[in-house]
Design goal:
The protein is α/β, with parallel strands linked by helices. The protein has a single domain, classed as TIM Barrel (Alpha-Beta Barrel). The chain is 47% helix and 11% strand. The chain has a 7-stranded parallel beta sheet with strand order 1-4-5-8-9-10-11. Strands 2-3 form a two-stranded antiparallel ribbon. Strands 6-7 form a two-stranded antiparallel ribbon. α13 links the parallel β9 and β10. α4 packs parallel to α7, α8 packs across α10 and α10 packs parallel to α11.
Length: 352
């Protein structure tokens, strides 16, 4: 593999000194870019884009051609694993992802098998290999997965939900089925991320989008426990260097200390969490990633600069900060505003 020309993202994840704060953006390859929309139209459907290694590589590289970002993230979707488990994923226009065969009973859960990442999910590994080669050491490549709890919410609900009634209903009324599902998902995510690492991912991230809807007790039992299982089972070294893992629970500010205790290298923060308080709470246990409100990018450049500086000042001196938004970039953002953000972070984040 080619030598890494810009490793400040990996260095920051390890809490090693960097020349300036690194930045990448959740959903940096996506609908806010006109060039992405062109490729998506050419591909046909969203999953057609994910399953074509060359097109997935093209859209992964697009934001790096526009912006001075410090990492690339694999273009894929969190629902690849449930899809490989045979639940019949499809995308309804304007409604988001749906499953033809959602899980309702213990028998449903018992039937699903753990997918082989180099078989049913080989298209993802092909995309990782293609992207890593195309990057040619420019910046590191991030691999990712949804968390077991987040994947389970889609698999039980059959799609997106506002009240989480079905998945929480199963959690309370049939905990045996829920734990079996989460264990199968934790095993699947572990092998899936390890396969991404073997294919060339240099850091990995677990997105727990829906962990924040749980109570303290249920979060530990039904979300964190299974992320801990994943962290414990991950390959932590490849290409002669450590492979860092980041955990991100949206709405998870209450549990930062417990998340840090899993053995992960970094925690992602959403914008509802004060980064200076987060740093005081976790100390030097982990690096922190985040956490500007994505809606700031609707504002004028001076506001974007000032809000970026607030996040950097909030983190303070010393290594261990990766700048990011507190969640994915919105689709209606002016792409030029992202340049303002990236350049401001690199300017204000200088350490010398």
């Amino acid at each position: 593999m080619s030598e890494l020309k810009n490793d400040r993202f990996l260095r920051a994840l390890m809490k090693q000194p960097v020349d300036t704060t690194p930045i990448w953006i959740m959903r940096q390859a996506g609908r806010y870019l006109p060039e992405y929309r062109e490729v998506r139209a050419k591909a046909g459907g969203f999953m057609d884009l994910c399953e074509n290694a060359d097109l997935a590589c093209e859209v992964t590289m697009q934001p790096l051609e526009r912006y001075d970002l410090d990492a690339a993230i694999l273009f894929s979707d969190i629902l690849t694993i449930p899809d490989a488990m045979g639940l019949g994923l499809y995308f309804a226009e304007g409604e988001g992802p749906k499953f033809e065969r959602p899980l309702k009973t213990l028998a449903d859960v018992q039937k699903i098998a753990i997918p082989d990442p180099e078989d049913e999910l080989r298209y993802v590994m092909n995309a990782v290999r293609t992207i890593r080669k195309e990057l040619n050491g420019k910046v590191p490549l991030i691999g990712f997965s949804g968390s077991p709890w987040t994947l389970a919410t889609y698999m039980v609900e059959g799609g997106t939900t506002k009240d989480f009634g079905k998945v929480k209903g199963m959690m309370f009324s049939n905990p045996q089925a829920m734990h079996l599902l989460l264990d199968k998902l934790a095993q699947s995510v572990t092998s899936y991320l390890n396969a991404q690492i073997a294919a060339g991912a240099q850091a990995v991230m677990v997105f727990d989008t829906w962990g924040g809807v749980l109570s303290d007790e249920k979060y530990e039992e039904f979300s964190l426990r299974y992320m801990q299982q994943i962290v414990s089972g991950l390959t932590r070294e490849a290409d002669g260097r450590k492979v860092p893992v980041t955990l991100f629970t949206k709405g998870g500010g209450r549990w930062l200390e417990k998340m840090a205790a899993t053995g992960c290298d970094a925690l992602g923060l959403d914008w509802t969490q004060d980064i200076s308080q987060a740093r005081q709470r976790v100390g030097d246990a982990v690096a922190l990633q985040g956490n500007m409100d994505p809606s700031v990018l609707y504002a004028e450049p001076e506001v974007i600069k000032s809000e970026a500086k607030k996040v950097l000042d909030g983190f303070g001196e010393g290594p261990g900060h990766i700048f990011n938004l507190g969640h994915g970039i919105h689709q209606h953002i002016d792409p030029d505003k992202v340049n303002v953000l990236v350049d401001s972070v690199h300017e204000y984040g200088k350490t010398s």
